[in-house]
Design goal:
heterodimer; A: 353 residues; alpha/beta; Peroxisomal Thiolase, Chain A, domain 1; ten-stranded mixed sheet; 12 strands; globular; B: 389 residues; nine-stranded mixed sheet; two-stranded antiparallel sheet
């Protein structure tokens, strides 16, 4: 396998980008990531993006942002109707097969103009489940209830995850909610979808993320400390909730094994867990040790730009490696109801290579 | 191309129709996938990963339907990947699947593309308002008709060329049991006399709106060799290419887009083709409106600029001609939009495998699959061959 690294990362997030459309949200992020390593789109061998028409509210919504990227003269480009983490995966494959040495990956989504909970209910089986319009908070609450019923967690455990995330968010300029709260204080709040409270659920977020990937010496030319992708894999679980044990996420476990999470110590993990109880499940499936710092950014509980939030996790880990704050880390992205689909990416600095 | 050779060892498609009311969306994709697996003599458990593509989710009203389709496509516990690159998506999806094998990441990949257009109205789905842009067209035909008029003006092509293409492709479809339209009574006069929709595009020169799915099984070199050893000829992937350009750009030529020319040049280069018109035995080209056949022949470098319509007029692109185009009946006879590009890629594979039945080009060794999308701005192509690269 070729050595491929994240050499640049940029992001934006806000609770409501009322004045800026998707292009205006994305372009400063793409400009920033290109400027970090001093390249233009023409210098890059491949471009891949992730977004979804259902969030933008128009078909072919990716065309407007691609037009802004400026694919002229023509470029080699692709788009996935998936979180940007999977766009990164497609770009990584292009580099692995030797068809590219560098790639721009970007993702974006504005959840504020519509009702993201009703929109996400359109992801469900169109014949059996979607006609009932169950929203993701309600489905996540079912999952959380399963954990409680199985004595695998308590509501205080959920609140602990939220409290730690909200405290961490104070140091994250991209967090849309932040502020240290005690577990007791959080448990006093009313339920949003029992047993989940407001702070156990993700905030509505508008945002974008961009990453530049590069292979081998090109990565070293562009970046002093590239964050090497030493393993990346993604898997999917059944869609029908009745077919799954909701207290588990076997697709996380398989992806973690394939990506080699256990092959070394994990200094930091950024988990795309939009609901507090999901962090407990993913952490367990990844087999993370107690010493691993989880979601130092605050994670998806403090900023969750749908379609970009998974790519943000990879960028957050890469940034910590490139800045020397971590040696080896794990990033996770999810999609679908109750952690149905999952991607795991292991990143490492040059230490030990 | 990556280090690993890629072979198409299984092809499957549904019977395409205006309304496939007998199956759910899951049932439709499963039907195509099962046929591809049967063709490959493989089972669901043999597949390492699934790559699925389709056009906008609004067509069926299901957001990111790959999540719901994971169960029906045997993807549970495996990687499931979803591509969306507009009308070219069926081709782009096959290329993503091919890349996974070429890069040595997976050995056997199932790739699927579909569209169920009967549950929505595609013409109005393609007439969406964009902020700050004037609503200039009704449906894809309204968008592309000016490009066709420009082609006719530039090339001096006579009026009947579009009719000839439509007649040819609808007759080709009679040899393809899966084609949506089977019109045995079609004549030059019936096409000519059909209602004018978007000057110069008549009703019978327009693609239908179809429900359908297409699937392929791609394997590594060992899988291709095993298929060949058991008497089931594989199609070897000789080259793949994608190119994109903006919707609007100063100097952009929508009649013969630069992205299409560069994509064709790239795929020929990778396949080692120096004289495409002479070397390619069969071409499956994305022709949703009749006049796009001569336009794409020129854009693809399969003839000189201005000569595309002459090839049509002389019958060169008929089954039995020197450069048979769309022997399956093409998009003009079957158009489940998200699957239409993959159908082109799959039909090209069937030709070089000698498995195209009544629409087989005798002795086809090298075939081109072509897909385009958006406002003629997204291109995906592959060249497949009977011989290993």
């Amino acid at each position: 396998m070729r050595d491929v690294a994240v050499v640049a990362f940029a992001q934006s997030a806000s609770a409501q980008e009322g004045d800026r459309n998707e292009v205006e949200v994305l372009m400063p992020v793409v400009t920033e990531v290109r400027d970090q390593v001093g390249v233009t789109t023409a210098d890059l061998d491949f471009v891949c993006s992730g977004s979804t028409d259902y969030q933008a509210g128009v078909p072919f919504s990716f065309v407007m942002t691609l037009d802004a990227i400026g694919p002229w003269p023509p470029i080699r480009e692709s788009h996935v109707d998936m979180d940007g983490a999977w766009a990164l995966y497609e770009a990584w494959v292009k580099i692995q097969m030797g068809a590219a040495d560098t790639a721009l990956v970007y993702a974006y989504g504005k959840s504020s103009p519509g009702d993201i909970r009703r929109v996400l209910s359109r992801q469900l089986d169109p014949y059996v489940t979607a006609p009932l319009w169950p929203d993701p908070d309600a489905l996540a609450a079912l999952q959380a209830r399963c954990l409680l019923d199985a004595d695998m967690a308590t509501e205080a455990d959920f609140a602990s995850v939220a409290a730690r995330s909200l405290a961490a968010a104070e140091a994250n300029p991209h967090a849309v909610v932040a502020g240290a709260r005690s577990v007791e204080d959080l448990l006093d709040e009313a339920y949003l979808a029992s047993p989940l409270r407001r702070h156990d659920c993700p905030p509505v977020t508008d945002g974008a993320a961009a990453v530049i990937l590069a292979a081998g010496d090109r990565a070293r030319d562009l970046c002093e400390r590239p964050a090497w992708i030493t393993g990346i894999d993604h898997r999917i679980d059944p869609h029908q909730l009745g077919m799954r044990d909701l207290t588990a996420a076997p697709s996380v476990r398989v992806a973690a094994e394939r990506a080699g999470v256990a092959d070394g110590p994990v200094d930091v993990a950024e988990l795309h867990t939009p609901y507090s109880h999901q962090e407990l499940i993913v952490r367990r499936e990844l087999g993370l040790a107690d010493g691993t710092e989880v979601n130092p950014s605050g994670g998806a509980l403090v900023a969750n730009a749908v379609m970009a939030a998974g790519l943000v996790r990879i960028g957050e880990v890469a940034e910590r490696i490139s800045s020397g704050r971590a040696g080896r880390g794990v990033a996770h992205a999810t999609s679908g109801p109750c952690l149905q689909q999952n991607l795991v990416c292991v990143l490492e600095g040059d230490r030990g290579r | 191309m990556g280090a690993e050779r890629v072979a198409v060892v299984g092809v499957g498609q549904t019977k395409h129709d205006a309304v496939r009311g007998d199956v759910s969306i899951a049932g439709l994709v499963h039907e195509a996938a099962q046929r591809a697996l049967d063709d490959a003599e493989l089972d669901w458990a043999d597949i390492d990963a699934v790559v699925i593509g389709k056009a906008p989710d609004f067509f069926e009203g299901v957001m990111m339907p790959e999540l719901y389709l994971a169960d029906a496509l045997g993807a549970v516990g495996k990687p499931m990947f979803r591509v969306h690159t507009a009308g070219s998506v069926g081709g782009s999806t096959a290329i993503v699947a091919s890349d996974l094998v070429a890069a040595g990441i997976h050995r056997r990949v199932l790739t699927v593309a579909f569209e169920v257009q009967s549950v929505s109205e595609a013409m109005w789905a393609l007439s969406f308002p964009y902020p700050f842009q004037p609503p200039m067209h009704a449906g894809a035909g309204g968008y592309f008709a000016p490009h066709i008029r420009s082609y006719i003006r530039r090339s001096g092509a006579p009026d009947h060329i579009g009719i000839l293409v439509a007649l040819k492709d609808r007759r080709h479809a009679l040899g393809n049991p899966y084609a949506h339209l089977h019109e045995p009574d079609i004549t030059f006069e019936s096409v000519r006399d059909s209602i004018m929709l978007w000057e110069p595009i008549r009703y019978s020169e327009t693609c239908p709106s179809s429900d359908g799915a297409c699937a392929m099984v791609l394997t590594d070199e060992a899988g291709g060799d095993a298929a060949a050893a058991s008497g089931r000829a594989p199609a070897w992937v000789r080259g793949t290419a994608v190119r994109s350009e903006p919707t609007l750009a100063a100097g952009r030529d929508q009649v013969s887009p630069l992205a299409g020319r560069e994509c064709a040049a790239a795929v020929y280069r990778e396949a080692g083709i120096t004289d495409p018109a002479a070397e390619i035995d069969a071409a499956e080209i994305y022709v949703p409106f009749s006049w796009f056949e001569p336009m794409w022949l020129e854009n693809l470098g399969l003839c000189d600029v201005g000569d595309g319509w002459r090839l049509v007029d002389e019958g060169v692109t008929q089954l039995g001609g020197d450069l048979p185009v769309n022997c399956s009946g093409g998009v003009l006879s079957t158009n489940p939009i998200g699957a239409s590009g993959m159908l082109r890629f799959a039909e090209a594979a069937l030709q070089v495998r000698g498995a195209a039945g009544d629409h087989q080009v005798d002795g086809a060794q090298l075939a081109l699959g072509h897909a385009y999308g958006g406002g003629s701005q997204f291109f995906a192509m592959w060249v497949v061959g009977a011989a290993k690269p």
